Amino acid sequence: MKYGFLTPVLACLLTNLTPYAWAHSDADPIVSMLSFKQFEQSKIGDDTAAIWNVDAWIGKDYDKLWIKTNGEFAHGQRQDSSIEVLYSRAVATYWDIQTGWRGDFNDTENRQWFAFGLQGLTPYFFETELTFYLGEHGQTALKIDTEYELLFTQKLILSPELEVNIHGRNDRQTGTGGGLSDIEAGLRLRYEFTRKFAPYIGVNYHKKYGQTAEYSRDSGTDTETMSWLIGLRFWF
Question: Cα 142 vs. chain centroid, distance in angstroms?
Answer without folding.
Answer: 12
